[in-house]
Amino acid sequence: MSQKPLIFHIDVNSAYLSWTAVNELKKGREEDLRLTASAIGGNREKRHGIILAKSSIAKSYGVQTGEPVAAALKKCPGLSLFPPDFELYDQNSRAFIEILGRYSPLVEQFSIDEAFMDMTGTELLFGPPLKAAASIQHSISEELGFTVNIGISENRFLAKMASDFEKPNKIHTLFPKEVPEKMWPLDIRELFMVGHSAENTLRSLGIHTIGDLAKCNPATIKAHLKKHGELLHRYACGEDDGAFLSHEAKEKGVGNSTTLPYDVDSADVARNVLLSLCETVCTRLRHENLKASLVSVRITDWNFVNHTHQRILPVLTNITGEIFTAAAALFDEMWDGTPIRLLGIQTGRLSGKSYRQYHLFDTEKFDKLEKLDSCVDEIRQKFGEDSIKRASFLNSDTYRLVGGISKDRRR
What is the pTM of this model? Predict the structure, then answer.
């Protein structure tokens, strides 16, 4: 007799702030930053930069994620600001995922602070879903000091929607039979993947709640929002056709992506993030003695619209600079200036060939570049990731090895 799927979505509550707060408490700070007017990001003295995360008290003053520090300080003069620490976030993310792995062999990390778990068939081990979720919450709180929200359903989309209900430190279910009662009354902006543009379009059609969208003719939505409209209508009906990633799936490429802490509208900042992603991808290619001849770049804008371009390279390569040059060109080709929520890079057509097939237009001394990258890898492995870095990262908020998943878990 087949079992219905059971999917958990686990989301760390105010991740950057929580992880910083826990670290400060360990260092002897008496006050918990989560209980004061606190925020992550920017520089208080120079009054520049943006807010990456804020406490609920800071939020009550009107402080918003992504706004300039100067604007936040006008709203809340007593705001305590702390710089981002991406190594700390990476450590906490790894520890968080390690705990989830004790409860399920299938854990799919969605971003640095959230993941899906396939809990199908685990009831004899951990009890009913609510009991298992409470156990996960307790383990994370006791061992790591921060709280999580957990959404429970039969598919990933509904589990994610459930985890976004009341926060913090809550457990919510959203099974298909509960959709009309729990999800349909919500404002349309609460539906996953509905951005500003889609929201305005839907409201112009008289669609103001998720239920309105579910009851609407899908052909009407498609006519106005094309394929994205079809996806939104399926979501409004509680459907999710995405397959859960299997750890046994054969890897066809090496890539990495990151959900940005704020919507990026600067080409220079976006390229710096791409460079950082290329660093992680190419480091792994070299570690696994692989080279790629295909590069693709993915952009998800603030309306959750995805854009992807790819390019076939004339040669196989794992040189960071060469992959980045291709990625930057792809980015310039397709970005129209719409603020960016996520950036990703993927390499494909992998080969384990150790030689490089030079062509007529090769003018660089690629053998020297390969040796240089290898030397950098060795230095970082011996003395730490920050022992050597590119100059473009010296005065940047972008971490040198950025990505939603820690370096030990990237696929």
Answer: 0.69
